[in-house]
Amino acid sequence: MIGDILRKTREIYGYKGTEMSEKLDISKSYLSEIEKNKKKPSLELLERYAVIFDMKVSTLILLSEDHDESLRTNKPQEFIKKLMIKLIDVMSNDEVEPDGKNGRKI
Q: What is the pTM of this model?
């Protein structure tokens, strides 16, 4: 579910729950409910997440869909494979600037 992906992405980016709730301008308890899949984030809130993570909203949604599918089919390795393929595609199709960054959001 989307809450799982938002929590895992927050953790990957190194944000604590309190820090993330402040960045999103929501309460810590609301963030917790979202991350535990008790509440669904609005599109506006997903857009704020996307800005913080420097990615597209559609990427967050696609990650959630892929993750859910891997759980339904009991094939988590497929989820990882899809992510790796997407990462390789992005890296091979974009020119990397001298600072190691590219201009394209994943």
A: 0.69
